[in-house]
Design brief:
single chain; alpha+beta; four-stranded mixed beta sheet; 17 strands; elongated
Length: 770
């Protein structure tokens, strides 16, 4: 269901919960009664028709779907609302699907009472906990230790139970049915338990020969309906946890900005800033995961992709909430450990919710199976978009066919063999491939047609990139810097003459570009550049040194950041220039890396004369150009899988280890990281989400990518036969180990991880500079 009302519904729900159930009112209900204000619950049902949300209009419901329900759940999570809205929604869905056999009025009458909130339901969705047996006077339930939310305040219990084969109707194989139990039924015993989550009470019931009314037949239909409702519950709990997670992060950030120690706010301490930045990265990953789960559950229910998305959303959100809950207390210090502060309430909710959707190890195992069998991922990038227009699907098909033909003809660079572009032969091959891409219409896909691009929207470029990975035709990094990072800056800030001169040959594969930003004394601090450009007639003389220049020895042009006003503030006295790499006074010296390869270079500039028209952007406006390039660089690095260890590599390495639980657990954790990364990249590419993205979204993507790369590399070394010191020649392991080593560069290039954390803290969260 595609909704156009959920933004308004979200605002209405948030306003209701903020006004009627604020955090400040929680303590009056923590240790008495049901744990929530019954008057607020009744107002929610009466003023918003809240309990009717997921029911169709034909039975008196609001006709909303999972999208609308998720935004309401997120709003409820922000105030740790403990009312029975979730169990009412889920009970309504179960009752809606009841076949009313053998009690024709039981389900329909109860559905009406649940829909208007008069009857509060305690719900048990796990049939493994309860067994149903027929007797001469009806059905009886047997079960020990059955947890039910709102047990003490419920008017009725809905319990999923197993039915013995002999008692199930013929042809109904999985023998699951839904039963109605009265709260005062004989044989229903409540255990005396303490609740970790004081904002939502859960009871533990024992059922011994407890009389019950069967609401559904025992069979595949009931089991399927139960699975569907349980899946819905997982997504809605994830959305609720996301709301709680966001709110606690806001509370903690505000505290860090206000709390002073050692003469300054603790938000200015780098450790605190990095902690809050890491939590924001996890929030963004959780946001993307919940969004994907909601979308796929609404549009592809029952599919393997939807199941994987739901599992990912539940796991990612649980993990993020648990870490934020822990750090929320720690960052508040002693006050966070007091009863009066709200931090422990969030911690209690996060901890209590960890196993509600099932054992984490079981869910991880299922996700691994779905990832490696039903829906493979190549290099953390999806092989196909879940939903796309016919035009985009046709473009994807054309791209796949072209790439497949190019590979067969030996005309496409391959992912596995490594850095083919660092030699003269690789340069020639890369230029041929780029020329072929341009001729086929796949070069500069989002660039304007007037400069040789295809003039298509961003999803087309995303689709082509996905197909290059899926077919095994790797992106040749020789042109990634020019087309993906420098070209957009020329488009945005170049003169018409510069765009006309530099962009067409770049897209045709005739000219290769590099960045000349970093210096020996200014790596992450690029604004500290000392290379100087002084006026000389109608141009400039440039003198200085650059370092870490990727493929500089193969490039035709470099984009140079130089100081043009030494008297101005550090960021204000910089300008950007286009430098021919064969100009007099330019010397390029390769640097050998830990992999033994020479992708990087240092570049010396000795009174290199540049004409005035080589200035890109205005004089002393170079920092603005540099920031644009860096923004595209981080986005590209966060959304591009270059020479990294993949989940497919790990599965192949683990093949000789059998199904050892610890090996499988490691693979499952990596599958979750890959899924979370993939989901965030899809979210990042979606135009409908861009207004919700934080500042430095590219930095968020890059941090997610580097964490995934490093965890994969670590696991690969652990799985290598004979230990990590062995590099069997000709076996393919040598290249794998080079990719393990190359991962170390990824968290440095484009801004080190710690610098990116600073940027996220300062620009996305508004924290002060150190």
């Amino acid at each position: 269901m595609t909704s156009t009302v959920h933004p308004e519904m979200a605002a209405a729900a948030q306003a209701f919960f903020d006004q009627q159930a604020p955090l400040s009112a929680l303590r009056g209900h923590l240790e008495v009664g049901p744990g929530y204000d019954g008057r607020t619950w009744r107002r929610y049902c009466q003023e918003l028709d809240g309990a009717r949300l997921l029911l169709p209009a034909e039975v008196g419901g609001l006709g909303a779907g999972i999208r609308e329900a998720s935004v309401v759940a997120e709003a409820a999570g922000r105030v740790l609302y403990g009312g029975p809205y979730l169990s009412q929604w889920l009970a309504g869905l179960l009752l809606l699907g009841a076949d009313q056999d053998p009690e024709p009025r039981a389900a329909s009458g109860l559905l009406s009472e649940v829909a208007d909130g008069r009857t509060v339901v305690a719900l048990s969705l796990d049939p493994a906990l309860v067994r149903a047996e027929p007797g001469p006077d009806g059905w009886r339930l047997q079960g020990e230790g059955c947890p039910l939310e709102h047990l003490d305040s419920a008017d009725v219990l809905l319990v999923a139970a197993r039915v013995d084969a002999a008692d199930a109707a013929a042809g109904e194989g999985d023998e699951v049915a839904l039963f109605l139990v009265q709260p005062d039924a004989d044989g229903l015993h409540r255990h005396d338990v303490d609740n970790l989550d004081l904002t939502r009470r859960t009871g533990l019931a024992r059922l011994r020969d407890t009389p019950a009314t069967r609401l559904t037949s025992a069979g595949a239909g009931a089991a399927q309906r139960l699975t569907e409702v349980a899946t819905t519950a997982t997504v809605l709990r994830a959305a609720e946890s996301l709301g709680s997670l966001r709110r606690l992060h806001e509370i903690t950030t505000a505290y860090a900005l206000a709390r002073e120690q050692f003469g300054r706010t603790i938000a200015s301490f780098q450790a605190v800033k990095h902690n809050l930045a890491d939590r924001l990265v996890e929030i963004e990953a959780a946001t993307a995961a919940v969004d994907a789960a909601v979308r796929l559950l609404a549009e592809q229910p029952g599919s393997p992709g939807a199941e994987a998305a739901v599992l990912t959303a539940g796991l990612v959100t649980e993990d993020a909430f648990a870490r934020m809950a822990h750090e929320g207390i720690q960052l508040h210090g002693g006050i966070g450990f007091t009863w009066e502060h709200d931090a422990h309430l969030f911690y209690r909710r996060a901890a209590a919710g960890r196993g509600v959707a099932g054992a984490r190890s079981v869910r991880l195992g299922r996700l691994l199976d779905l990832t490696t069998l039903a829906d493979p991922i190549e290099d953390g990038v999806p092989t196909a978009a879940p939903l796309e227009t016919p035009e985009l699907a046709a473009f994807r098909g054309r791209a796949r066919a072209w790439l497949t033909t190019a590979i067969a003809a030996g005309e496409a660079p391959e992912v596995r063999p490594g850095p083919v572009s660092t030699t003269a032969e690789g340069l020639a091959a890369g230029k041929r491939h780029q020329a072929a891409l341009h001729e086929a219409g796949f070069s500069g896909i989002t660039y304007p047609r007037e400069y040789g691009g295809a003039g298509l929207p961003a999803p087309y470029e995303d689709a082509f990139f996905e197909e290059t990975r899926a077919t095994g035709a790797g992106e040749d990094k020789l042109f990634r810097i020019g087309i993906g990072m420098i070209g957009p800056a020329i488009l945005a800030m170049g003169t018409p003459e510069q765009r006309e001169r530099y962009l067409p040959p770049l897209l045709r594969g005739e000219e290769v570009w590099c960045e000349l930003f970093s210096e020996p004394g200014s790596g992450s601090d690029m604004a500290g550049a000392r290379t100087k450009a002084v006026p000389d007639g109608d141009g400039y003389l440039v003198t200085g040194q650059k370092v870490w220049t990727s493929n500089g020895h193969l490039c035709d042009f470099g984009l140079l950041l130089a100081r043009t006003d030494p008297t101005a503030a550090k960021h204000a006295g910089l300008s950007m220039f286009v430098v021919p790499m064969d100009a007099a006074g330019v010397e390029v010296r390769p640097l050998r890396q830990i992999t033994g390869e020479t992708d990087f270079n240092e570049v010396f500039l000795d009174e290199v004369r540049l004409p005035r028209e080589s200035l890109l952007g205005g004089l002393n406006d170079g920092w603005r150009v540099a920031r644009l390039v860096l923004q595209h660089e981080r986005m590209a690095m966060g959304t591009t899988a270059v020479r990294r260890v993949t989940l497919a590599d790990l599965v192949e390495l683990a093949a000789g280890r059998g199904t050892h639980p610890l090996v499988r657990a490691g693979l499952a954790e990596q599958a979750l990281r890959e899924r979370a990364l993939r989901t965030y990249l899809e979210y990042l590419a979606g135009a409908e989400h861009r207004h919700r993205l934080p500042a430095e979204a590219g930095a968020v993507a890059k941090l997610l990518m580097t964490a995934t790369m490093h965890s994969a590399s670590t696991l690969a070394v652990e799985l290598l036969e004979g230990g990590s010191a062995l590099w069997p020649r000709g076996s393919g392991t040598g290249d794998l180990l080079k990719r393990v080593l190359a991962a170390q560069a990824f968290s440095i290039a484009g801004g080190t991880d710690n610098i990116l954390r600073n940027l996220i803290g300062e620009r996305a969260l508004g924290l002060p500079r150190d």
